[in-house]
Amino acid sequence: MLKKLEKVSTGTRERILRIAISEFSEKGYSGARVSTICRKSRANPRMIYHYFSGKDGLYVAVLEHVLGELRQEELKLDVEHVSPLDGIMQLFDFTYEHFGQHPELIHILSGENLQRAKFLKRSSKTPVVASPLISLIGQLLKKGEKTAEFRRGIDPLQLYVAMVGFAYFHRSNAPTLSVIFKSDILKGDWQAEHKRYAKEMLERFLKHKPS
After folding, report:
1. For the CA atoms of the chain, what is the radius of gyration?
2. What is the mean pLDDT of residues 119-132?
3. Spatial distance between the Cα atoms of 156 and 153, rounded to a whole number of angstroms
4. Which of 33, 72, 73, 115 could serve as a FRET partner for 126 with CA atoms 20 to 30 Å apart?
5. 6-15 long-range contacts, Cβ below 8 Å, gap at least 24?
6. Could you tell me the pTM of the whole model?
7. Res 178 pLDDT > 90
8. Residue 54 φ/ψ region, left for φ over 0, alpha for ψ in the -120 to 50 degree band, beta for the rest
């Protein structure tokens, strides 16, 4: 009986969180309404306060969830048994495709940036889920330096931010870029060409140049 209640409880929390991700992604923190989230998730408003301590706590949980999903999937990649360049490119391929498949991640991060990371600063989980990836990139860079495949002195965080920029910037700004340049930035062939350019730039940047 206790296990059944725990299962129901977990299901309610997950249902609230799933609906909240959709609502915050579409309407932002200010536009999303707890009453709407409760109605769509078929949950009593008291459940929001029970599981998340209110709207603010729910929004923080949403941030942690979408970022945590990204990190969890990144760390599943097996890059220990490939060359350093292939390892970096696998990480980039995943990051590029993940942002493309999860527009809610782009919307939520863009909204949080407008708020100067007000809610992300309250999260105790975000630094924990972020740090292993930077370490992994650092290991690949050191391996590439030792084999003379990569040039020396590349900072792991700088590289990761550049990789995310290639995957994130054009998508988060697609509506305005598409209008300004009269080109559908989200069109499949445009995306494929952009990814090819990005990978070529990354490879050229990483590679060791013989003296």
Report:
1. 20
2. 77
3. 9
4. 33
5. 12/41, 12/43, 12/47, 12/51, 13/47, 13/51, 15/41, 15/42, 15/43
6. 0.87
7. yes
8. left
